[in-house]
Design brief:
By secondary structure, the protein is an alpha+beta fold. The protein has 2 domains: about 90 residues; about 110 residues, Jelly Rolls. Helices cover about 35% and strands about 30% of the residues. It has 4 helices and 9 strands; from the N terminus they run ααααβββββββββ. Strands 2-3-8-5-6 form a 5-stranded antiparallel sheet, with no helix packed on it. Strands 1-9-4-7 form a 4-stranded antiparallel sheet. The longest helix has 28 residues. Keywords: Membrane, Transmembrane, Transmembrane helix.
């Protein structure tokens, strides 16, 4: 079997050098274009596989190896890595984490006092089963004593599906919400708890959907 592979991929002529190099390059380019947006580092291993694939096929294309068997190994390695990178990329597109912070709309979030309600809507998100939110809270009037350490948020999903409520969320601490199935849009109501006389500005630092 090994001799058959050698005869097909490394017959000692130049005809098999350039096509694999171009094919690997095209697959790497396609995977890069289809790579989904997500948290930094989510695609780190995919990029590493792409680099290995390009280096291996480059070594093969420019005839830097003398052994036929080594050239076959480089060809197999390059295709294995680039195929794995493409499959992994498609998996992340369907199931991976996606940063949707830029799609968040928050209303009634300025100068909120104790017991105040804040509405949050995220439209047009990829269909996922969970939403991870991180909130930021600051004093509406920076000249007064800070009320941030005592401020907490209750988060309740609204709309269809079973109710999900997480209480006493601290700003800067991620909270993970089960959406009750695949959903492409999310709405939530936040209730602010802080000291009497305090007024707070609330925003969403990060919003990430995932499975």
């Amino acid at each position: 079997m090994g001799d058959v592979i050698i005869n097909v991929f490394a017959d000692g002529t130049k005809k098999w050098r350039l096509p694999p190099f171009l094919l690997v390059g095209a697959l790497v380019g396609t995977a890069l274009l289809r790579s989904p947006s997500g948290p930094q580092g989510a695609s780190r291993w995919i990029h590493l596989l792409m680099v290995v694939a390009v280096m291996a096929t480059g070594v093969r294309a420019f005839a830097l190896l003398e052994s036929e068997r080594d050239r076959v190994l480089m060809t197999v390695l390059s295709f294995a890595c680039v195929i794995a990178a493409c499959v992994w990329t498609e998996y992340l597109r369907v199931h991976g984490e996606v940063d949707v912070t830029g799609r968040v709309e928050v209303t009634h979030a300025r100068s909120v006092s104790d017991g105040g309600r804040i509405d949050l809507v995220i439209d047009g998100t990829p269909r996922r089963t969970h939403l991870r939110l991180t909130f930021a809270v600051e004093d509406a009037d920076g000249r007064t004593q800070s009320c941030v350490p005592e401020t907490r948020l209750d988060v309740a999903l609204t709309g269809r599906g079973r109710p999900v409520v997480v209480e006493r969320v601290v700003a800067g601490t991620p909270v993970d919400l089960a959406l009750g199935g695949l959903r492409s849009g999310v709405s939530a109501a936040l209730t602010l708890h802080t000291d009497a006389g305090c007024a707070m500005n609330v925003s969403v630092a990060t919003a990430i959907v995932h499975d």
